[in-house]
Amino acid sequence: MNKPSMGQVLNAIGAFLKNGGRVIVGEPKVIPIDRTSAFGPVAFIGDGWSIVEEDERSLKLSEVDLTKVNFETMLKDRESSVMGEEKLKRLKDAGHIRLDAKVFQTLWENQHLIPASWKEPIGGNTIYVFFDGTILRDLSGDRCVLCLYWDGGEWNWHYFWLGLMWFAVRPSAVLASYPLRTS
User: Fold this and answer.
1) d(Cα 103, Cα 34) in Å, to the nearest integer?
2) Which contacts (CB < 8 Å, 24+ apart) does range 14-22 have?
3) Could you tell me whether strands 128-137 and 50-54 are parallel, antiparallel, or unpaired per DSSP bridges?
4) How many domains does the chain have?
5) Which residue range is the domain that position 131 belongs to?
6) Nearest-angstrom CA–CA distance, 102 and 173
């Protein structure tokens, strides 16, 4: 058996501390969401960004069971794409709990918590996981949504305008129903 390197040991200790001192065997399933401070678009993205809409049900979540997160494209039969605003309307009409920017930020800041399955391409294309529970306004006044994606062997983030076409490789992270615990 090979002895772990100092870097591997330090990474393991860092992951342990980031997880609140809890040992996780395998992939984490339930992740805590720190609601003591709200997501700050100016601090995270830059000046001129603001929050214009949020899914209040998602804001009440103090933890998220990643095994219960569904990816929804909201495409109807024979549709290959949908406009972003229409997709958002369909998500709302379906009653999905749209995961918000604080869930996104938690995963971004703790990338070891992101399930490996989220790296898997769809039809050979990179999957972009969207967090439609927070709608942002950019410097131009356009409505945008944050996303995570795996590319080049690392996690990245970006935002997309709701005025664009959205395809199957741009699903939204949602919960079908409330988890057991909320704040």
Assistant:
1) 9
2) 15/112, 18/110, 18/112, 19/110, 19/113
3) antiparallel
4) 1
5) 28-175
6) 13
Residue 147 lies in a domain: yes
Note the pLDDT tens digit of each residue in 86-139: 999 999 999 999 999 999 999 999 999 999 999 988 788 899 999 999 999 999
> What mean pLDDT do residues 12-21 have?
52
Beta bridge partners of 154: 151
Is 5 part of any domain? no
Token pair for residue 1?
A: 């058996």
Average pLDDT over residues 140-144: 96
Rounded CA-CA distance 163/143 in Å is: 8
DSSP 8-state secondary structure symbol assigned to residue 102: H
Tokens linked to 102: 């604080």
Residue pair 172/72 in contact (Cβ under 8 Å)? The answer is yes
Q: Helical H runs in the chain?
A: 6-18, 41-44, 56-59, 84-94, 101-109
Positive or negative: CA dihedral 43, 175, 96, 89: positive
- What mean pLDDT is predicted for residues 19-44? 78
pTM of the model as a whole:
0.81
> Would you say 32 and 61 are in contact if contact means Cβ atoms under 8 Å apart?
no
20 within some domain: no
